Amino acid sequence: MTATADLVTASDSMIASIQARIDRAIDDLLASLPNPGELSAEERRGIIARYTAVLEGNFIYWMTGAYLSVGSDEARAKIIDNLREEVRDCHPGMMRRFALAAHAIPTDADAQAIYRNLMNVRLFIGRLSAVPIVVTMAFFEGFIQRFMAYLAELARRQGSAEMEYTDVHGVCDVTHTQELFRALEAEMALAPPMPAKEMFEGVELLRTLIQNIVVDN
Ligand SMILES: [Fe+2]
Questions:
Q1: Residue 169 CA to ligand 1 centre (angstroms)
Q2: Which of 13, 70, 119, 186 has the fewest CB atoms lying closer than 10 Å?
Q3: Ligand 1 centroid vs 144 CA: distance in angstroms?
Q4: pTM score > 0.90 for this model?
Q5: Long-range contacts of 14-21 (CB under 8 A, 24+ apart)
C-alpha cells in the first residue's frame, strides 16, 4: 500500500466520486433495514427511541461543530442556513412530539444501547476537522432524508398520526444538496489533500451508530 495513491483533492470529478460514495453508503444502509411488517411493537419502538436519542440533542450540536470547523464563506453560509432553520422551527421539539405520539420516548436503556457509538461520533466532531465533518454531515442529511418514509411507517404502525418531523425532513432538496457539495469543494480547496480513510472516518463512525439505532446490539 502506498501513502500517496489514495489522496483526495478537490476537483469536479473528485466531488462527484465523494458524492457517489456517500450515496452508496446510504443505499447500503437503507437496503439493510428490516421489513417494518416483520418487526414487533417493541422493536419498532426501539428504533424510533434510539433514533430520537441520537437526533434530538445532537444534530444542532454537530452542525455547530461543522460551523466552527470550516473556513470558507460558502460552507459557513450553508451551515448557518441549516442552523437557523433548526432553531427557528424548533426541530428538537418536532422530534420529541414525533417520539411521544409513537409512544417511543427514549428510556435510560435506549440511551445506554447507543452510548459507545454515539460517543465515538462526538469525539470525532470534537476534533473540528473541516473536510471530514462536512462529508459526514452530507452523509447524515442524505440518510435522514431517505430514512423518513421508513421512520414514518414505523410510527404509523405504532398508532401515531403525528408526522410533522418526517414530512419536514423527507423533502428531497436538490438545490440544498448541490450547495452542500459546493461548500465541500470550497473546504477542500483550503485543506491539504488527505487519505480517503481520514476523509470518510466520520461517515464510518456515523454509519456504525445508525446500524446501532436500527439493531440494538
Ligand atoms: Fe432538523
A1: 6
A2: 13
A3: 9
A4: yes
A5: 14/188, 15/181, 15/184, 15/185, 15/188, 18/135, 18/181, 18/184, 18/199, 19/138, 19/181, 21/200
Give CB contacts under 8 A, 24+ apart, made by 205-208.
205/117, 205/120, 205/121, 205/124, 205/136, 206/121, 206/136, 206/139, 206/140, 207/25, 207/29, 207/139, 208/117, 208/120
- pLDDT tens track for 101-153: 999 999 999 999 999 999 999 999 999 999 999 999 999 999 999 999 999 99
* 99/207 Cα distance (integer angstroms): 22
Q: How confident is the model at residue 8 (pLDDT cuts 50, 70, 90)?
A: low
CA of 178 to the centre of ligand 1 (A): 18
Task: Using the mean position of ligand 1's atoms as its centre, give its distance from the Cα of residue 145 in Å.
Answer: 10
Determine the distance separating the centroid of ligand 1 and the alpha carbon of 8, expressed in angstroms.
Answer: 30
User: What is the whole-number distance in angstroms between the Cα of residue 189 and the centre of ligand 1?
Assistant: 28
Q: How far is CA 1 from CA 4, 5, 17, 131, 173, in A?
A: 9, 8, 21, 23, 39
Are the CB atoms for 124 and 137 separated by under 8 Å?
no
Distance in Å, CA 11 to ligand 1 centroid: 30
